[in-house]
Write a structure and sequence with these properties.
By secondary structure, this protein is of the alpha/beta class. Helices cover about 50% and strands about 10% of the residues. A seven-stranded parallel sheet has the order 3-2-4-1-5-6-7, sandwiched between helices. Helix 11 (about 240-255) links the parallel strand 6 and strand 7 (about 270). Helix 3 (about 55-65) packs across helix 4 (about 70-80) and helix 3 packs antiparallel against helix 8 (about 165-180). It binds guanosine-5'-diphosphate. Guanosine-5'-diphosphate binds near residues 95, 99, 103 and 276.
Length: about 375
């Protein structure tokens, strides 16, 4: 067999030629048909449908790219993968920083993989990551067991753009992951309302992780977020914290009884567990599977997905209108003057906006 270093394709891959250590790049892996040349949309689709996670990762990078050429390929890939998507359960997992999301996701992930086999993708929605540069969600280093599991795929939050843009990319990534055979999707999120709403709009079950401790846990939580939850779990139910967790669970359960019955017909449950010590994990997943069975039988599962698809159509219209407007060269040139005239009090905000919009629509 030809020595890899004589191979033209391999040559470009030697990072430290002349250094004694052999390259860590396995040359044989690079010689397949996916090596080097730019992949077409069909190449991506073929790789994804074969379950190739390297190709999947590259396709997700395209989805996240703001380059119009990449976007065009990404949209073609998504469209071709769409018929192969949908066959999964999608779980949203939310909680404030420190609630124990990554510790729990590591445990939950290993539990479901042992329990039902298959493949698990962990994605994230974190609109703040653009500012903080470097996401704190979906970070592999925070999920020690899952990150080395052969059947898991962990992807941090896309970092570019508005919450709407970040959420759209996560939703599109779900489609690609499902087409690649991932039958369990976790979407991790943190926030004070909006990112939870975005996460809720793309999952089948929304799990809210809470902490006990202060005795008035309900004070800090917004009603809207509680109403979104299909299950509330009180984490860190271990050591001295057990009684406080049970008290908090009772408070949450009582509060949930005061809300109207959700459309799903499922009264959300409240459970205690410890992600760190691996206690009560099975019960959390018994609850989730019970919910999935329940809503599959009463038709709500499909109804919720259809409603979500409708929601995303409108989100997409909003996003495209906004980006079309702001990326228009004429509008971009007029905006600073319009802004100044509003600042100077020469025009009202409404008039300035209307004039810009009239100009934009007249250009189309
Ligand atoms: P995240 O910010 O929500 O992802 O939270 P982390 O998973 O990073 O956990 C935050 C801190 O809480 C870490 O120091 C964890 O070790 C700790 N922690 C997480 N789960 C538990 C638990 O079940 N019990 C206890 N006692 N500590 C936990």
């Amino acid at each position: 067999m030809e020595h890899p270093e004589n191979n033209e394709e391999y040559k470009g891959l030697v990072v430290n030629s002349g250094v004694e250590q052999p390259s860590i790049v396995n040359p044989y892996l690079q010689r397949g048909r996916f090596a080097r040349r730019r992949l077409t949309a069909d190449d991506y689709v073929e790789g994804i449908l074969k379950g190739n996670t390297a190709i999947l990762g590259q396709a997700v990078t395209l989805v996240e790219s703001t380059n119009p050429e990449h976007q065009a390929v990404a949209q073609e890939v998504i469209e071709k993968c769409l018929p192969y998507s949908g066959n999964s359960i999608r779980i949203g997992i939310s909680g404030v920083p420190g609630a124990g999301k990554s510790t729990s996701i590591d445990e939950f992930g290993i539990h479901v993989l042992q329990r039902t086999g298959g493949r698990l993708a962990v994605l994230a929605i974190d609109p703040s990551s653009e500012k903080t540069k470097g996401s704190i969600l979906g970070d592999k280093t925070r999920m020690e067991k899952l990150s080395v599991h052969p059947d898991s795929f962990i992807r941090p939050s896309p970092s570019a753009g508005s919450l709407g843009g970040v959420a759209r990319k996560t939703r599109e990534t779900i489609i690609l992951c499902e087409a690649a055979g991932f039958d369990k999707i976790f979407v991790e999120t943190v926030g004070v309302g909006q990112s939870e709403t975005a996460c809720h709009s793309m999952v089948d079950f929304f799990l809210l992780i809470q902490l006990a401790g202060t005795g008035d846990e309900l004070q800090g939580i917004k009603r809207g977020i509680m109403e979104m939850a299909d299950g509330i779990v009180i984490n860190k139910c271990d050591g001295d914290n057990v009684d406080a967790c049970h008290l908090a669970a009772r408070q949450f359960q009582n509060a949930l009884h005061l809300f109207p019955m959700p459309d799903s017909g499922w009264l959300p449950k409240v459970l205690c567990y410890s992600g760190f010590y691996g206690l009560g994990i099975k019960e959390v997943w018994d609850m989730i599977y019970e919910y999935i069975d329940f809503v599959r039988q009463n038709g709500y599962f499909q109804h919720r997905r259809a409603e979500q698809a409708k929601y995303w159509m409108y989100e997409s219209i909003h996003e495209q209108l906004l980006s079309g407007f702001y990326n228009n060269a004429t509008i971009a040139s007029l905006l600073p003057r319009a802004e100044q005239s509003v600042l100077d009090g020469q025009k009202t905000s409404f008039i300035a906006a209307k004039q810009l919009l009239d100009t934009y629509f007249a250009l189309l």
